[in-house]
Structures are given as C-alpha cells and as structure tokens.
Write a structure and sequence with these properties.
By secondary structure, the protein is of the alpha/beta class. The chain has three domains: 126 residues, Glucose Oxidase, domain 1, CATH 3.50.30; 109 residues, Enzyme I, Chain A, domain 2, CATH 1.10.274; 314 residues, Phosphoenolpyruvate-binding domains (TIM Barrel), CATH 3.20.20.60. The strands form two sheets. Strands 1-8-7-3-4-5-6-2 form an eight-stranded mixed sheet. The chain has an eight-stranded parallel beta barrel with strand order 9-10-11-12-13-14-15-16, surrounded by four helices. The chain is globular and about 75 Å long. About 2% of the residues have low confidence.
C-alpha cells in the first residue's frame, strides 16, 4: 500500500530512507524548588548550561559549508546573540535567587514571560521570532536536563527526518550525521528551514501538515524535492522507479563536472555571464574551481556580525584584498553593508524602534545615517579597487537622493585617500540593487545615474507582494512568477537596454534552473548565484535558444493578464 501527501519542495532531489520522527517540541519541565543552601549550585549549573549551549552552537557554526548562503550563518549568529542577552543569561538567575526555584523551572518561567511579549506584538515578523526564543531555550534545557543522548543520538545515516520544525543548529548537525532528507510540518519556500535545505543540498519538503501524526517511525519514505511529493511505500515498482531517478541524477551530477571549462553559450550563440555570490574570502576557491565568470555579489556583512565592536578600515581592507587578489583578475562586485534594524551595531548612535526591520533602518539607509560606520567601509573598498577589477554596489536604493549622497561621499573618500597617499582605481563602476518596487518603477532614472543595476529578487518579491517571506502564515503567497513581479523585472532589464548599462540578477531566481528560460527570454544575460548552482544553470543555458525564447516571453508578457498566461509561463519554465 502506498500513501502520498504533498508539501513545498525546497531542494530539487530525491531521497529514499526510513522515517525517523524527531520529537523536538519544547521540553516539558515541572515546578521544582531547591533549599536556600543549594541556590549557588543551581545558579552555577544554569551558567554552565548556557556556556555549553554557546559552545555547541559555535561548533555548529564552524561546520557550515562556506558555499552556502549568508542567511545560514546569520541564523546561528542570532541564536548566539540571544544566549548572550541578559533576558536569557541573567533573568533566569534572578528567578532562581528570588523564588528558590530550580534552573529548569526558572528558564521555563522566563520563556513564558517572553512568549507573552512576542504574542502581543502586532507585526508578524516580530511575532515569528518567538520560534527563535523556543529553539534557544530548548537548547539550554537539553544541557540542564542532560538530554544530549537518547532518541536524538540514534544512527541517522540514510534516515529521513520528520519534525514539526528544525532549528538551524539541528539542521546542520543532521546533515553531518548523514540524513538522506527531511520533512517538516511548518515552513515555506523562504523559511529558514528551506534556506538551510537548499544551502546544504538536502532533499526536503516543508509545509507538510500533520506529518508527525500521520507518518510512523521506521516506515519507508520517498521524498521528491522537485515535485513536492512525499510517499510512504514498500512497493518494489515504485521504489525501483525512484532509485532509477536517483541514479540518473547522480549521472547528471557527474556530467555537470564536464561543463566546468565550457562557456555558458546558448544554442544560437548568446553568451550568459554566470557569477558567484560569496561571503567569505575563502569562498573564492569554490568560485574559481567552478570557472565562474567572477563574483557578482560579495556580501560584506560577515565582518560585522557576532562581535562587540566594528572592524576597522585595515581589517576590512585585508578581507577585501584577499578576495580581489584571489580572483586573479576576474571581476568582483562588492556590496556595501546590508545590515538591518534587527542587527543593530553596538556603536550606532541610536537604537531603532521600528516595528518591521525589513522596512526600517537598514542597508544604505543605515550607512548614510551612520557616516562613522560608512566612511571606513568605503575607504577599505576603494583601496581594494587598486588591486583588481572591482565594482561597488549599493543595496536597497529607493530614491535618487540616496545616489547623490553616495556619489558625494565616494568623491570625498577618494580625496581623503589621495591626501593620505593611498591608491585606488580610476573610473570605478558604481551600481545599485533594485529590490524595492519604487526603484524598479524608476529604473530609467537610476540607470541614468549608475553604471549598472542588479535585481535582488528575494526582497523585490516580498516587498511587491507585501508578504514576509519567512512568515509561515503568508509565505505561500511568495511567488517570483507573479505578473507584477515579472513586470518589474522586465522594466529594469528594458531600462538597462535603453541606457546601455549592464543588468544582472543576484537573487534566488538567478540560480534556479526553472527560471532561466524565462529570464533569458526577458533579455537578462548576467546571473549571480551561490556557487553550487553554477553548473546546473550553465547546463540549462547551453540547452536553450535565446531568440526563440525572446519571442515566446514577449508574447507572454504582452498577454500576461489573460487566462492562458499561466499556461504559457509554465511552458517556458519547464524547458529546463
């Protein structure tokens, strides 16, 4: 007998294995009080548990593959910062002293108090951060209760994990324990679980409601991450079919290695530039080994995260220099700081009180407001331009006044470097990320003032559709193929053509093979993605006819509001 259900496939790939149900809900604790003479020991036990949790997360952080997205590291960073916050490091100790309660119960009392605060918030993004609190508190409780063994220590090699949700640290550890795939009840295409699955290359489904109730421990499962299908079956014919698909996938992965030295040229001779998104200087090795055309997005935030102070100019210059020189002449686009209001720096002059960090003081807004932060950053980047072909990209532009301010600051910074006798390149290309709908609508104006534009689809989609891409309640609405999103993308590409400047894309769409035919047909020729997607995208590019796609996409865009538009869109996207 075969049972099937559907979810959201977040990593293309198939996994076959026995189910392993993780009971990862909150650890239940009962009220327990201790004599006065044991209070000091209880406080010490709590502090040791917090320290152990911190060491555990730090160990996990070191296991994150360098080719994965920056969001993966930021999840762990967020939990480490929460462990250091007084709300978890000190307040439970106050409960122990004041109420003579055991450490586990003190932590539970603080958890209940924090959850009430989050539940009272109107903003869905901030409400959703309650899950992070629960993940961290559960992590501490495991050390307090010494539940580091037991069910979770079972041999998970080749198993398919079934869980309500997975904390970032758990997901990374499961990958290192050799799990074949996982299925979660919660999550959407841009939830942290989905991002982790893609970054770690684990076949996975999210949003499979009631999975922990309808699936049994040990039963044989098939996870199809491409189709979004979960099968529970022992039927030989079905298992043989999927095993054959896995073999073909492995063969294709081997054949992809043959494309490393081949150009990304369509059947009709159109060349696509395939660039890498990187974060760490060490990621340069993966970029070069896969013969990327360069780096289309170098995230600079990693230097500023999970530390008490900000890096000075010399530390930044050293990091950027390593990246530029490591590319041996390949171009690199360095994005200026894209820190957000939910990642406030200790030396910023004012604390943000915004209700929605995604719409608040972040990216270029923060940098322009904090010149003491921004000027050393610009100096370090400009100095790195003397070492190789470097472009500078500004994130989250929304109006031309920001461009004028940036140009003025760049000119002032150049003059200061000249006075100091420090080198920088002449004629540096300065571009902007188009991730705010207002910027896409004003693409012609930005194209007149900048040397290039790069479409950041992750934010563009969520801002256009007014949804938080990590909110499980609404992320089913996250749709890169929404007609409004496609119109905005087309407007930016067309503006680039009119003003003869390059247009690239560095959002998730650029590395998803399903969207490559559509984007090629829209006229996009520069794609930047996580290194692991480069060869698959190259394979797709080499199989397509750009001229034919341009005609198909042109017809589709002209009729995008008509009933048959979805059929035409599906036909185009299925060509990969």
């Amino acid at each position: 007998m075969t049972f099937s259900c559907s979810g959201i496939g977040v990593t293309p790939g198939i996994a076959i294995g026995n189910a392993h149900l993780l009971q990862r809900g909150l650890i239940e604790v009962s009220p327990r009080f201790v004599p006065f003479n044991q209070i000091a020991n209880e406080i010490d036990r709590y502090r040791q548990a917090v320290a152990s949790a911190r060491r555990s997360l730090s160990t996990v952080e070191k296991k994150i593959p360098r080719s994965t997205w920056s969001e993966i590291a930021s999840f762990i960073d967020t939990h480490l910062l929460m462990l250091a916050d007084a709300a978890l490091s000190e307040v439970p100790i106050d409960f122990i002293r004041e109420q003579n309660c055991a450490a586990e119960w003190a932590l539970q009392l603080q958890r209940d108090a924090l959850v009430k605060v989050f539940d009272a918030m109107d903003d869905p993004y901030l409400r959703s951060r309650k899950d992070d609190v629960d993940h961290v508190i559960t992590h501490i409780q495991k050390f307090l209760l010494q539940k580091k063994k037991g069910e979770d220590s079972a041999d998970l090699q080749g198993r398919i994990i079934i869980a309500q949700d997975l904390a970032p640290a758990d997901t990374i550890l499961l990958k290192h324990q050799g799990v074949a795939g996982f299925v979660t009840e919660g999550g959407g295409p841009m939830s942290h679980t989905a991002i982790l699955a893609r970054g770690l290359g684990i076949p996975a489904l999210v949003g499979v409601h009631h999975a922990t109730q309808i699936l049994r421990q040990g039963e044989r499962l098939i996870v199809d991450g491409k189709q979004g299908t979960l099968l529970a079956t022992d039927e030989k014919s079905i298992l043989d079919h999927y095993r054959n698909l896995i073999r073909k996938s492995e063969q294709r992965a081997t054949s992809l290695l043959m494309l490393i030295k081949k150009p990304a040229i369509t059947l009709d001779g159109e060349t696509a530039q395939l660039m890498a998104n990187i974060e760490l200087p060490e990621d340069i090795e993966a970029t070069r080994s896969l013969s990327a055309d360069g780096v289309g997005l170098y995230r600079t935030e990693y230097l500023f995260m999970n530390r008490s102070g900000t890096p000075d100019e010399e530390e930044q210059f050293t990091a950027y220099s390593q990246a530029v020189e490591g590319l041996n002449g390949l171009p690199i686009t360095i994005r200026t700081l894209d820190l957000g209001a939910d990642k406030r720096l200790d030396n910023c002059s004012q604390e943000s009180t915004t209700c929605n960090p995604a719409l608040g003081l972040r990216a270029i807004r923060l940098c322009l407001k904090e010149p003491k932060l921004f000027r050393p950053h610009l100096r370090a980047i400009l100095r790195a331009t003397a070492l190789g072909p470097v472009k500078i990209m500004i994130p989250m532009l929304s109006n031309l006044q920001e461009v004028y301010q940036i140009k003025a600051m760049l000119q002032e910074t150049k003059e200061s470097l000249t006075r100091d006798g420090l080198d920088y390149a002449d004629n540096i290309c300065v571009g902007g990320m188009i991730e705010v709908p207002a910027a896409a609508l004003a693409a012609d104006a930005f194209a007149r003032e900048l040397d290039f534009l790069s479409i950041g689809t992750n934010d563009l989609v969520q801002y256009t559709l007014a949804i938080d891409r990590i909110d499980d309640e609404v992320n089913y609405l996250y749709d890169p193929l929404h007609p409004s999103v496609l119109r905005l993308i087309q407007m930016v590409i067309d503006a680039g053509k009119r003003h003869n400047i390059p247009i690239s894309m560095c959002g998730e769409m650029a590395g998803d093979p399903r969207y490559i035919p559509l984007l090629l047909g829209m006229g996009l020729r520069e794609f930047s993605m996580q290194p692991g997607s480069l060869l698959e995208v190259k394979r797709v590019v080499r199989s397509l006819d750009a001229a034919s796609l341009a005609k198909q996409v042109g017809r589709m865009m002209r009729n995008i509001d008509k009933p048959n538009a979805l059929d035409a869109l599906s036909l185009i996207c299925n060509q990969y």
